[in-house]
Amino acid sequence: AQEDTGLQLQPLLEGQNHGAAAGDGAQRPAVSVPRSRAAKRVVAMLCFGNLLNSMDWFLVPGILLDIQKYFGVSDGKAGLLQTVFTMCYMLAAPIFGYLGDHYNRKILLGAGILFWSGVTLGSSFLTESYYGIFALSRGLVGTGTASYSTIAPTIIADLFEEGTRTTVLSIFYIFIPVGSGCGYVLAAGMAKSTGDWHWAFRVTPCLGGLALVLLLLLVPHRIQRRTARHRALSISGTRQGAHETPAVHRTAKTTWCQDVGSLAKNCSFVWSSLGVAAMTFVTGALGMWIPLFLYRAQLVQGIVPPCLQEPCNSSNSLIFGAITIGTGVLGVTAGAGISRRLRKIYNKADPLICATSMFISALCLYTALMVAQTNILSTFIFIAFGELFLFVIWAVVTDILLYVVSPRCQSTAIALQILLSHLLGDAGSPYLIGAVSNALQARGTPTFQSSFWSIQRSLAICAFVGALGGAFFLLTALYIEGDRREAER
Question: In what way does this protein cross or attach to the membrane (predicted)?
Fold first, then answer.
């Protein structure tokens, strides 16, 4: 028999034992491998890939001033870069979600990493007359990263039980804000050190090649999917023939339409997805425009001179990147810890944590916008608190999805949530903020003051959307207990 290099879920509930090697006539109990030894390698690789995905996502905002000057584009066209990225990302997510539920996930992850790395590297050689192709390349990068965001969390869900899963997911999602912050730092640092912002797009592809090698070496070719019938199964490293996997381990396949239909009836999934959409609207707009907003606020106060040639002052991107890393680690960790403790005493704790965090974040962000013209230090502080409470939500909302949705369609559910949240969220928010800013500037004479006021007022939309997201999570709390019982059945 051939060796199965995959992580096999041993059917302990059925009391079945398998031979340890081919040609062995005696039926001996399989030797169990500790969960941590097998799963840690997989989680480490997934976290590294998540870090790179997030870094590449925020390279453009980190050097937005340089890109605007290089291509000669307005706020609206600059915001379009992130919108194109997100649109392609969200449209590709349902496709990869379906593929992830039915086909080999390791191959899909590897193909995604190879694709976005190649496109990112190619975009770094475009000249100023090819802005349209540059925008298209950002969309193609979004298509590649969609494979990772939809499939990686389901692998973690298959490897860990619910209690441990929250902790592991929080570690996995910590690398989104950390990677986002590193993207700002990398982009600004490379532009400053080389004098050419194009070099920012040549580092992550090299790291993507490393991630692909680690994927091939560390992640097994097959990871069995957890279903309701074998929640107590453990991870085993035994040798089995390619056709020896018992039928009980195979997840029943359903059509994509059946999966979507069941999810549409799941109120917790629908309302929490709308809450995630509000969160992504805010994070997408802030991630794209906050460094430029801070620069214009400092310009009005006379703290920095106007940028007349490349490279522009990148200190705001560096500071905002550092804030994102710090608040991301603290927020995701705190959110997961609070969720674990409160969930034991109150079944509706998770959506209420998300609602409270959204309301507080909206208040902090609105305050940051209002004090920017007079006190830049207070602006940084309130932005940090606003981001902190946004990051509290990240691991919690994914865990909500994983326990209110049947395991057989979790990849599809994650893909649909990505589609809905980005369609209503950061697919349009960067462009919307830029377009509103352009419209406000067109009403009067262009000055430093008018450019600041225009971006300040357009960003105020984020505070109101954040409060709306808190209301969506309150609605989630009304249905979460019943939907969770239904998923467990």
Answer: Multi-pass membrane protein
**Model confidence over 205-232: pLDDT tens digits?**
888 888 888 888 777 666 656 554 444 3
Instruction: Give the C-alpha separation, 133 to 263, whole Å.
Output: 37
Structure confidence at residue 22 (pLDDT): 38
Which residue's entry shows tokens 């540059």? 134
Cβ neighbors of 267 (< 8 A, separation 6 or more) are 475, 476, 478, 479, 483
Average pLDDT taken over every residue of the chain: 78
Which CATH number belongs to the domain containing residue 124 in this structure?
A: 1.20.1250.20
The answer to whether residue 241 is domain-embedded is no
Residue 388: count of CB within 10 angstroms of its CB: 23
Could you tell me the CA-to-CA distances from 79 to 84, 140, 202, 214, 313 in Å, in that order?
Answer: 9, 17, 22, 34, 19
**In this structure, how many other beta carbons lie within 10 angstroms of the beta carbon of residue 219?**
24
- Nearest Cα to 416, choosing from 253, 283, 277? 277
Q: How far apart are CA 249 and CA 367, in angstroms?
A: 53
Asked whether residue 219 falls in the same domain as residue 335, the answer is no
User: Distance between CA atoms of 105 and 50, rounded to whole angstroms?
Assistant: 15
Q: CB atoms < 10 A from the CB of 148, how many?
A: 22
Q: What is the dihedral of CA 68, 452, 298, 432, to 10 degrees?
A: -50
Domain that holds residue 288: 256-488
Residue 420 maps to a domain: yes
Among residues 224, 244, 274, the one where a domain terminates is: 224
Clarify whether residues 273 and 187 are in a common domain.
Answer: no
Residue 328: the pLDDT is: 85
Domain count, the chain: 2
Span 373-401, average pLDDT: 89
pTM of the model: 0.70
End-to-end CA distance of the chain, in Å?
36
